[in-house]
């Protein structure tokens, strides 16, 4: 391998933490195995994020500033990334495993005739080839996979690695992209996002998640209040989302979002493997459940056995007391 290009995702005007985690990991590998590392930013505001990305050590930053990239579009992003790869000459494209990445990964793989290693939890170089591990069978097993051909595309799960700065002199290269509106087969008319002001679940440092133990509006209020006190985001299992206590955007798990916060509160969550698949990379997990035999306690750093309707008010009061000192 001679060069890796890292796609740096930006959301709501900020570089995604998960993208910097990927860049940091590949910088470590580039140093250890002596290959080049570059990054690419997409969007008309790409220049605004160059300084942030430069702090994490790529040798070069490519910027594709086509106005139509202002919001995610599968066809446009595929065209922009293909163009960036052509200019870079990279044999590998690496990115965080975000919703946007999952949207373009298949199309990119076909377009580039590439080996695709999606949603990996670790990546290394073994005998000159990429070797990764990735969760399979609802995260019950880890599969070890190797890419034997190039080009390769690798997407890395959020929280698999830490983001670490390593500033260096960086060359910035503008990459032109000409896209005809007539060539687009898909037009985005509206984007529906989360409620304004709520913390992005996939980027949150603290997540408070609700399970079946949260049965009503009072339980929902307590979960949201704890998240507010901690400055965190609110998540939920599929069961409580389907009961309409929380929006679909809050769902965490195999069929929802994958999160990796520093602190994860599992409130009334039993610990079904489908949910654990979406939060097992959390640094610290605190479980609150009245069933002492709940599977969630196998994954938790700390566990509290008891009624969440009694425990959460006490916890919230204590946290507020500490914050006012």
Structural descriptors:
single chain, Rossmann fold, 7-stranded parallel sheet, 9 helices, 17 strands
Chart the SSEs and their pairings.
Blueprint: E1 3-8, E2 10-11, E3 14-15, H1 17-33, E4 36-42, H2 50-54, E5 60-64, H3 74-88, E6 92-96, H4 99-112, E7 115-120, E8 122-126, E9 129-136, E10 141-147, E11 152-156, E12 171-174, E13 206-210, H5 217-230, E14 233-236, H6 238-242, E15 263-267, H7 273-276, E16 284-289, H8 296-299, E17 302-305, H9 308-323
Parallel strand pairs: 1-4, 1-6, 4-5, 5-12, 6-11, 7-11, 13-14, 13-15, 15-16, 16-17
Antiparallel strand pairs: 2-3, 8-9, 9-10
CATH class of the largest domain: Alpha Beta
Structural class: alpha/beta
**Would you give the CATH topology of the largest domain?**
Rossmann fold
* Overall 3D form: globular
Largest sheet: 7 strands, parallel
Question: Can I get a quick summary?
Answer:
With 325 residues, the chain is α/β, with parallel strands linked by helices. Helix content is 29%, strand content 26%.
Description:
The chain is built from nine helices and 17 strands. The protein is an alpha/beta fold and about 325 residues long. It has two domains: about 5-185, HUPs (Rossmann fold); about 200-325, TPP-binding domain (Rossmann fold). It has a seven-stranded parallel beta sheet, sandwiched between helices. Helix 3 crosses helix 4 (about 100-110) and helix 5 packs parallel to helix 9.
């Amino acid at each position: 391998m001679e060069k890796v290009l890292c796609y740096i995702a930006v959301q709501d005007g900020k570089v995604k933490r998960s993208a910097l985690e990927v860049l940091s990991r590949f910088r470590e590998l580039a140093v250890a195995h002596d290959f080049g590392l570059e990054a690419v930013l997409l969007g008309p505001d790409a220049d605004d994020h160059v300084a942030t990305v430069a702090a994490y050590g790529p040798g070069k930053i490519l910027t594709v500033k086509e106005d139509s990239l202002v919001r995610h579009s599968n066809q446009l992003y595929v065209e922009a990334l293909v163009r960036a790869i052509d200019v870079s000459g990279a044999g590998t494209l690496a990115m965080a495993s975000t919703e946007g990445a999952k949207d373009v990964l298949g199309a990119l793989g076909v377009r580039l005739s590439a080996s695709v290693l999606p949603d990996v939890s670790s990546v290394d170089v073994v005998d000159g080839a990429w070797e990764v591990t990735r969760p399979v069978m609802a995260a019950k097993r880890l599969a070890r996979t190797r890419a034997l051909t190039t080009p390769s595309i690798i997407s890395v799960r959020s929280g698999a690695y830490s983001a670490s700065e390593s500033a260096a002199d960086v060359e910035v290269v503008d990459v032109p992209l000409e896209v005809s509106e007539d060539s687009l087969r898909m037009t985005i008319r509206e984007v529906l996002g989360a409620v304004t002001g709520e913390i992005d679940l996939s980027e949150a440092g603290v997540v408070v998640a609700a399970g079946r133990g949260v049965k009503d509006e009072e339980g929902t209020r307590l979960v949201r209040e704890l998240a507010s006190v901690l400055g965190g985001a609110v998540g939920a299992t599929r069961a409580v989302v389907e009961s309409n206590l929380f929006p679909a955007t809050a769902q965490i798990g195999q069929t929802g979002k994958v999160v990796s916060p520093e602190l994860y509160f599992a409130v009334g969550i039993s610990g079904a493997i489908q949910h654990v698949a979406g939060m097992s990379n959390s640094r610290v997990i605190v479980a609150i459940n009245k069933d002492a035999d709940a599977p969630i306690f196998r994954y938790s750093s700390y566990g509290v056995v008891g009624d969440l309707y009694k425990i959460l008010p006490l916890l919230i009061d204590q946290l507020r007391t500490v914050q006012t000192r």
